[in-house]
Amino acid sequence: MVGAGPAGLTVGSILRAAGVGCLVLETATREVVEHRPRAGVIEEWAVRGLARRGLARTLLERAQAHTECEFRFAGERYRFGYTGLTGRHHFVYPQQFLVTDLVREYADVRGGEIRFGVRDVRLHGTGSARPAVSYVCPDSGERRFVEADFVAGCDGARGVTRASLPAGRVRLARHDYGVGWLALLAEAPPSSDCVVFGMHPRGFAGHMARSPEVTRYYLQCPPGDSPENWPHERVWAELRERLGAAGAPPLAEGRLIEKRVLDMHSYVVEPMAFGRLFLAGDAAHLTAPIAAKGLNLALHDAFLLGDGLVAALTKGDESALAGYSDACLARVWDYQEFSQWLAEMYHGTASGDPYRAGAALARLRRLFSSPAAAAEFAERYLGVRTTG
């Protein structure tokens, strides 16, 4: 497995539970891997999948269960109780906590090999029966080669595995949303007991609890904008404006400990398998954080890939691996389409186009006037329809 993120560590843990020898290679240090902030919303089916594989004990003890969200638009607040419509809920558990759990389970409990801080990872012979991966050892500076039966590319959007795909045999579908999001972490308690989405003529804003002391915020901004353009006072002034609504409590403000601009775009690589190389997570598909689907897709890939590799290596049955790409892509495209639909609702009111703004507001109002529309949204927001 190239990459010690949620996908690579989950695949490795599944293999180790079946007694299969494996190796995880990671360019960052263990400390960086276990502390870099990423996603925090995990769908219920994904948690059940982790629990079935013995990977959710700490998560189930510590995660918050969310049952509703709140939309704020046209100066009003609208609570949306998705658990009442579906019987399902979201778990809020910062990705760095999950990665810490998975590193411990894979390496410390199940005895999986993992090498942090490696450099210049290269793939060799992925179309052959015995592919290999080489890397430069951080301690000795020597290049080392590792032969394997399979290689799992779990090293993200900028990793080496996707860049190693054979030219002419891959289709990359990409969509740019034409907006940026200023991603913020604030040393401040959450200002609401649920996720809040603010649709405002000045741009979208989002509020997501990460812990009792830390809150994630998002502010729509121009693509390519610089975090330096967003000093402390401007950030909080915009958040107060865009998340303001009748009866809304004031925001609990605090020191900003992270500011970075995300240009909203998505892509899908097809197929997700090439010979003995299988891609998973952001190496295969990037979903803009609009619908909080990226971590969930990475776990879905990992469940299918880990189980498929176990069947191939312990039973000689490669049928699941043969269908891996198609099985993953069905969910990938479903989540991509939902993210695109949701993006128009989030950003339409700030588009400067009266038609798009009116259509976005009509979409929002329909969620609270049509039981069928509400049920449809709740199922897609929670990933209920595509649960396998």
UniProtKB/TrEMBL annotation:
The keyword Transcription regulation does not apply. It comes from the Bacteria. Signal peptide: none annotated. InterPro entries: FAD-bd, FAD/NAD-bd_sf, RIFMO-like. Keywords: FAD, Flavoprotein. Residues 2-338 form the FAD-binding domain. This is 4-hydroxybenzoate 3-monooxygenase. It comes from Streptomyces violaceolatus.
